[in-house]
Amino acid sequence: MPGLLNLPSEMLARTFSYVNQSSLKSLRQSCRFTSHLATDQLYRTVRLQPGKKSQNALQEILNNPSLRGVPRKIYIDTVDENIGYSSDSPDDDFLHYQEFPQMPQFRFKAMHQFFSLLESLPQPIEDLGIRNLQADNPKDPKILANMEKVLSGLLSLRLSITSETNDAAPEHDLENPEIRKFCKELPSTWLSPAAPSLQHLSLSSREYSGFYPRLDLSNLFFPHLKTLSLGNFCFFHDDQIDWILKHGDTLEEIYLDDCAILYGFRMMDENVDACALSRDAFVRRNDDYSLYGSFDKRWHDIFDLFAEKLPKLRHFRIGRSQWYPDVPFEQEMDIKVGLYYNRYMCCYDGTGPSPYMEGEKPENVTYLEPGWSLAPQCDDEDRAALRRLLAKLGQSVQESHFGSDNSRVVDLIQTR
Fold this sequence. Notes:
single chain; Monooxygenase; 13-stranded mixed β-sheet; three-stranded antiparallel β-sheet; LRR_dom_sf
């Protein structure tokens, strides 16, 4: 033990970060010095779930003078499938039901209580992650004020966004006013307060986001951003690529999990104002109730831009991680690198079960709806550009493998 205690405190702290929970608890009892280090590791990360048990545990930390200043990383899950309900359940648990483990009212109440507690921490947290974030922002000014205080000064923010579905008619899911409003407000409500300090940003959503409903990040700037992770995000305009490139002075890692280029899109008249393009970006073609548009950038264009204009980039992954049963959370390194065929998609509003569809190859098409477009045929160009980018980064990947959904990737390209 004396030899261990002679090590620099930074090295000891790093060493303790690899120790399991049981051993850390034992080290807390060994001596005052190791107790301090073990306590820091045990309570630095706090994982919270809805319900009184988790809230009480956080309150106990706040009530303990030796612990209340320790937490730096808070992970919140607004869904707890272990919570059941019965006729004599308390009010919190009564709001639980089978298909959606917690209803929006339950999640809002949990978020209000958690942010009230986090706001009262003596030292601000550095890392916040929220799983199953309900796609409907709180409206209470007090909750919003607590959120802004907690978000301000964050170094890392991870949001895993979920939304309610209409099983009988899933093609109408994106017409839900809550998810439209949530996506439109997400930059100002969740990201702007953290922008001055944020170094790591992760956004993933159960629904494809970016285009429809509108999620516009182009007016945000994160002067210290090192890591950007996007899941189920769509690229459909040059402004989105330019937004990433303007972080070139700091950006070191990019993770694109099941992201797609929208090469073609059609919007119904009544829904066009909910998408991210203005009406004048569309043209009318074959009828009087639909508007059409397209995007001509391809992944090889983007890869080459990243290689040229992101001088500090050190790690890049594009492909797919495990999306079942939940939206991925803190799984960036699980992304199996590959150029999956859904990397090019189209969004044709009014079709089902989802307006987002994988593009078809010409040989697979016997009939194409008027105004629709075939998927880009650029496997060779995309493969070559990805290899150039990875080579510049000095990054090796497994080019042939089975994907997370048991699909086959050969020489970086998913086979159909």
